């Protein structure tokens, strides 16, 4: 579904991603693990189009998307939940979630909301509340629901567990497992290796902009846990 070849991303004189090759098959959940500054978020941002690749190819379902805007990539079926949640704080929870489904007709938006409530039941209770008043974990769930609401084929989750209590990590993990049952493809980045390894199929350990180790999560577990404490 997603193929990345010889990807380079630079900020000024800093090489954030340095020649990464990566393939993700449909229906797989793939984890990018690494310490802060490893290049994980830069790679995700290049896939969604928030940063421009200095070199390399990004292909989605066989199509080169390197020259497309973020909006165009979203229309192709790539959803994105950014690091740090970034909800619209003064908007209601429901409006935040449906912001990801603005291209859908009104009736479809209603069905989308019902699906998100089935996945995240607390949304129904808090739907009229301003998203900025929620806890960090609740905001993260709202951000993920917003990314899912457009019905993506590929969902990008950037550090979904960052700074969250175990109860919220468990709920996000349960949501990812549900996505897996529905056949959604997921690419997630994470510093917290232990909970992430429990839900991903495959993993890649990143350091200094390069992939250092790849395999199933069982195969890379030792390297991933070592990277978590660097």
Task: Kindly describe this structure.
- By secondary structure, this protein is an alpha/beta fold.
- 38% of the residues lie in helices and 27% in strands.
- The longest helix has 16 residues, at 166-181.
- Helix 6 runs parallel beside helix 7.
- It has a single domain (2-228), classed as Rossmann fold, CATH 3.40.50.
- The mean pLDDT is 90.
Radius of gyration (CA) equals 17 Å
Q: How many domains?
A: 1
Number of strands: 10
Number of helices: 9
The sequence of SSEs as H and E is EEEHEEHEHHHHEHEHEEH
Strand content: 25-35%
- Kindly report the CATH topology: Rossmann fold
Mean pLDDT: 90
Q: What is the structural class?
A: alpha/beta
Q: Biggest β-sheet, characterized?
A: 6 strands, mixed
**What is the CA–CA distance across the termini?**
32 Å
The coarse silhouette is globular
Helix content: 25-40%
CATH superfamily: P-loop containing nucleotide triphosphate hydrolases
Low-confidence stretches: none
In the CATH hierarchy, what is the architecture at level 2? 3-Layer(aba) Sandwich
How do the strands line up in the largest sheet?
6-7-8-3-9-10
CATH C-level name: Alpha Beta
Question: Summarize this, please?
Answer:
With 230 residues, the chain is an alpha/beta fold. The protein has 9 helices and 10 strands. The chain has one domain (2-228): P-loop containing nucleotide triphosphate hydrolases (Rossmann fold, 3-Layer(aba) Sandwich).
Features:
230 residues, alpha/beta, Rossmann fold, six-stranded mixed β-sheet, four-stranded antiparallel β-sheet, 9 helices
């Amino acid at each position: 579904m997603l193929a990345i070849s010889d990807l380079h991303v630079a900020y000024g004189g800093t090489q954030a991603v340095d020649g990464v090759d990566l393939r993700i098959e449909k229906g797989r959940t793939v984890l990018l693990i690494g310490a802060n500054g490893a290049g994980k978020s830069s790679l995700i941002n290049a896939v969604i189009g928030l940063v421009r690749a200095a070199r390399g190819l990004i292909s989605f379902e066989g199509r080169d998307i390197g020259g497309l805007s973020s909006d165009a990539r979203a229309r192709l079926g790539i959803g994105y939940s950014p690091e740090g949640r970034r909800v619209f704080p003064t908007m209601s929870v429901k409006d935040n979630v449906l912001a990801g489904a603005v291209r859908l007709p009104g009736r479809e938006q209603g069905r989308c909301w019902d699906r998100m409530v089935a996945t995240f039941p607390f949304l129904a209770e808090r739907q009229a509340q301003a998203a900025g008043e929620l806890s960090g974990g609740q905001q993260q769930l709202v951000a993920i629901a917003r990314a899912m609401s457009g019905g993506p084929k590929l969902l990008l989750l950037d550090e979904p567990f960052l700074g969250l209590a175990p109860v919220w990590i468990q709920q996000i993990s349960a949501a990812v497992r549900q996505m897996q049952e529905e056949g959604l493809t997921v690419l997630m980045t994470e510093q917290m290796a232990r909970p992430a390894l429990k839900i991903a199929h495959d993993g890649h350990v990143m350091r200094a902009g390069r992939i250092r180790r790849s395999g199933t999560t069982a195969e890379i577990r030792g390297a991933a846990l070592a990277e978590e404490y660097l």
